[in-house]
C-alpha cells in the first residue's frame, strides 16, 4: 500500500469544527488504551501522525487526518475520543459521549466505523450497546481486534471465541491486527476500501 500523503487536518470539539470538504470518512472508535492511534499510524506508515499516550483517555477531541494513496480516492480518518476510562470525571465522560454521538449520528460523509477491540479483553456493555445503536442509525461497522501480538499463539483462538460469543457475531466478522508487527494491516485496508466505495447512508 503506497501512501502518498498523510496529514493532520483539524481537531474539533463540536459539529461546527468538523471539516466540510465532503471527503469520505472512516471513524476509529474504541475503549481508551485500545490502540487507536498506534493502529492509525501503522495504516499510513507514519510513526507519529496520530499522537499516542501512556495515559488512557488523552484524546478529548475529534481528530481528522487526510490520507492520500496512489490510484485510490482520498479519505479522512477520524479518531474519536476513547471511552470507558474511569479516572475521567463523569461530567467529562458525558461530554465525550455527546460529542461522539453527535458525530456518528449526523455525519453525511461517514462511510463506516471501525470498532476496535483489545484482543486481551472481553467486550463490555459499551460495545454490546454500541453495535445496535450504530445499526439503528444506518452506520456500517467493522470489528477490528487490536494487539494480537500480545497473545501467545495458543491463546488466540480462545480469546477470539470469547469475543465473538459476547457480541453474537461470526468469527469471520473480525479483522485481526497488530500495530506492533503489522499483522492484518492489508486486510484492514481492504475493509476500509470496501466501506469507502459504499454510497453514504441517508442520516439526519
Q: How would you describe what is shown here?
A:
The protein is α/β, with parallel strands linked by helices. The chain has one domain: 3-Layer(aba) Sandwich (Rossmann fold). Helix content is 31%, strand content 23%. It is built from five helices and seven strands, in the order ββαββαβαβαβα. The chain has a seven-stranded mixed sheet, with helices on both faces. A hairpin with a 5-residue loop joins β3 (62-69) and β4. The longest helix has 17 residues, at 90-106.
Residue-averaged pLDDT: 88
Q: Give the ordered list of helices and strands.
A: EEHEEHEHEHEH
Based on helices, strands and strand pairing, what is the structural class?
Answer: alpha/beta
Helix share, percent: 25-40%
What's the number of domains? 1
Q: What is the count of helical runs?
A: 5
Overall CATH architecture: 3-Layer(aba) Sandwich
Low-confidence stretches: none
**What is the rounded distance between the termini?**
34 Å
Could you say which overall geometry the principal axes of the C-alpha atoms support?
Answer: globular
Look at the structure and give the CATH class: Alpha Beta
Round the Cα radius of gyration to an integer and report it.
16 Å
| Spatial ordering of strands, largest sheet | 1-3-4-2-5-6-7
CATH topology call: Rossmann fold
CATH homologous superfamily annotation: P-loop containing nucleotide triphosphate hydrolases
State which percent range the strand residues make up. Answer: 15-25%
Give a short account of the largest sheet.
7 strands, mixed
The count of strands amounts to 7
Amino acid at each position: 500500500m503506497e501512501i502518498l500523503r498523510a496529514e493532520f487536518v483539524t481537531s474539533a470539539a463540536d459539529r461546527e469544527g468538523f471539516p466540510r470538504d465532503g471527503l469520505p470518512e472512516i471513524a476509529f472508535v474504541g475503549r481508551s488504551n485500545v490502540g487507536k492511534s498506534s493502529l492509525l499510524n501503522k495504516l499510513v506508515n507514519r510513526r507519529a501522525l496520530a499522537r499516542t499516550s501512556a495515559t488512557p483517555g488523552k484524546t478529548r477531541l475529534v481528530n481528522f487526518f487526510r490520507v492520500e494513496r496512489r490510484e485510490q480516492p482520498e479519505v479522512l480518518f477520524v479518531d474519536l475520543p476513547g471511552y470507558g476510562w474511569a479516572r475521567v470525571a463523569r461530567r467529562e465522560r458525558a461530554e465525550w459521549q455527546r460529542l461522539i454521538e453527535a458525530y456518528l449520528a449526523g455525519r453525511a460523509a461517514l462511510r463506516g466505523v471501525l470498532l476496535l477491540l483489545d484482543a486481551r479483553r472481553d467486550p463490555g456493555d459499551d460495545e454490546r450497546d454500541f453495535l445496535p445503536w450504530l445499526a439503528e442509525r444506518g452506520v456500517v461497522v467493522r470489528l477490528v481486534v487490536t494487539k494480537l501480538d500480545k497473545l501467545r499463539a495458543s491463546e488466540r483462538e480462545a480469546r477470539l471465541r470469547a469475543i465473538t460469543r459476547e457480541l453474537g457475531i461470526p468469527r469471520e466478522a473480525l479483522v485481526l491486527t497488530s500495530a506492533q508487527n503489522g499483522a492484518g494491516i492489508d486486510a484492514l485496508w481492504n475493509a476500509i476500501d470496501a466501506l469507502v466505495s459504499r454510497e453514504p447512508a441517508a442520516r439526519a
